[in-house]
Amino acid sequence: MTHDTTSSTPSVEVFSSMPQIDSATVVLGVETSCDETAAAVVMGGTDVLSSVVSSQLDVHARFGGVVPEIASRAHVESIPHVVAEALERANIDLDRVDAVAATVGPGLVGALLVGVSAAKATALALEVPFIGVNHLEAHLYAALLDEPRAEFPMLFVLVSGGHTLFVEMVDHDSYRVIGQTIDDAAGEAFDKVARFLHLSYPGGPAIDKAATRGNDTAVAIPRAMLNDGFDVSFSGVKTAVINYVRANPTVSSDDVAASFQRAVVDVLVHKSRRAARHVNARTIALGGGVAANSLLRSEMTKAAESEGVSLVLPSREMCTDNAAMIASAGWYRLRRGESTALDAGANPNLKLGSGQR
Amino acid sequence: MIILGIDTATEMVSVAVINGTSVMASSETRSERRHAEDLTPMIDFVRRSAGVSLRELDAVAVDVGPGLFTGMRVGIATAQALAFALSIPLVGVDGLEALVASLPATGVEQAEVVVPTIDARRREVAWAVHRAAGTRVVAPRVGGMDDLLAGIRERDQRSLLVGEYASRHREEILAGLGPQAWNVTFGDPGNDWPHARCIATIAHERLMRDDATPPNVPSVVAMYLREADAEINWLTRSSA
Ligand SMILES: [Zn+2]
């Protein structure tokens, strides 16, 4: 029988019976929003059975940043092997997978589409739900992996190369962004200063390391505290560093790194304290690549203590992009009875809390 | 042998399920920038129309390009994941070859060679040359209109040009060939796009021919025919 049809909107299967979601529910997570191809198997939302991250750092290092087309090419080559490896390390068969979650945004659209396509196809073949996950939300679940019982209301501080957000969380599905950067993201400032100081790529870990050898009061750097509200600015900090080094070319770059890092951490900690008080937070949660910074971790720990709130810090490997946090965020969505139709695409500009209540 | 064919390498998205040499069901839609949105539901729709479950599939076939980079990656990522989840072989098929395979036997016999074309964007065309009998004589390449015209002129054979690029640039091609234009005919616009049913059919022939054991992790290589821009710039800079 030949059945030729031209259809523009094929119907989408709706899962009539959602599986029982509990501590034995296994979610396969996929993450391809930027330059890491990642897959993970997480059971019950917090039990990470495997987390595989294939980094493209080497591929992009010579360009000094992520090149979208090159990232997309690397994703489509790596993804089958990364998924197979995650299942193998978790020591489970595909038919034990109860749902497949993938990052749908924000990120590089061409890169996102590789993961979304692979995840939707896997869900279709296994006849299990697909869950589109917001990458920013997932960073929070990286922190909650080790502390699933952390209490709300919560202040979630997301600091990465692309984002600097202060988020009020009343509950799992209830977010409000109360502050953000008005210019550079924290991680972006780290990268730019590192590049200016000729430190290695990526900039965050390089500055962290150089700073341990430097004097953090050597260079006076103004803190843009923007006293109204909870927004922050890092471009002034970055410019101050650049101007100082140009005027004092013999300055030790360790001292510059230490002073710069101290300034950024001061701003982040100061704003976090104010924001935590404002939302009556019982918990402060940190997420994103900059959350791996040693000084930020220690200063946040002190600040939380003096504010009388608990602090949840993701392990260092869960700060950077990974798929365990995607699978975890997917499990929480699934538990709320949510899944995503198979006609979903990617949303490169997805915001936190937008249409996600 | 039941094969699922997928084509998302051009503006068209098509999906087909074939059984041996007969098409069980197929569907196509014009999808300028919604390949990922359209593809998964279409696969489900077509396999339902064919009355088969995905677990009954014996293989998956996908157009690996040339064409739209993001489109071909959507198809490849999907096909790789399906083949892996279903533990079945995956076959990657060149879209230009699929264009040649889509031609009806009549019309081809008047030509000595077939020149399939696919729009490569940026005013460039991906093309190849096949003998009318089928074997390929010029491997897929990408270049400007001049490159294509030079290729046709140089062969000086009765050429059948097919594909959406050739259809759309028909007048320019004829004008560019000048006195040699009489040597060229154009395919039916019905054969403008590589179609999933041709992708699946070519895969079927290939699977019947050689029975290699499929790898545990099925994967295929995209045919970009062009380095990424940053790569091009970097190579130019470092050689300068
Ligand atoms: Zn991230």
Structure description:
The complex is a heterodimer of chains A (357) and B (240). By secondary structure, chain A is of the alpha/beta class. Chain A folds into two domains: 12-142 and 319-340, Nucleotidyltransferase, domain 5; 151-313, Nucleotidyltransferase, domain 5, CATH 3.30.420.40. Chain A has helices spanning 57-61, 68-90, 109-126, 135-144, 186-196, 203-212, 235-247, 253-278, 294-307, 316-319, 324-335, and strands at 4-6, 26-31, 36-43, 47-55, 99-105, 130-134, 154-159, 164-171, 174-180, 283-287, 310-312. In chain A, helix 3 links the parallel strand 5 and strand 6 (130-134). The longest helix of chain A is centred in the last third of the chain and has 26 residues, at 253-278. Chain A starts with a strand and ends in a 22-residue tail after the last helix. With 240 residues, chain B is an alpha/beta fold. Chain B has helices spanning 35-50, 69-86, 95-101, 105-108, 145-155, 164-168, 170-177, 196-209, 229-239; strands spanning 2-7, 12-19, 22-30, 59-63, 90-93, 113-119, 125-131, 136-143, 159-162, 184-186. In chain B, strands 3-2-1-4-5 form a five-stranded mixed beta sheet, with helices on both faces. In chain B, strands 8-7-6-9-10 form a five-stranded mixed beta sheet, sandwiched between helices. In chain B, helix 2 links the parallel strand 4 and strand 5 (90-93). In chain B, helix 1 (35-50) crosses helix 2 (69-86) and helix 3 (95-101) crosses helix 8. Chain B starts with a strand and ends with a helix. At the A-B interface, strand 1, helix 2 and helix 3 of A face strand 3, helix 1, helix 2 and helix 9 of B. Strand 1 (4-6) of chain A pairs parallel with strand 3 of chain B. The structure holds zinc ion. Zinc ion binds next to helix 4 of chain A.
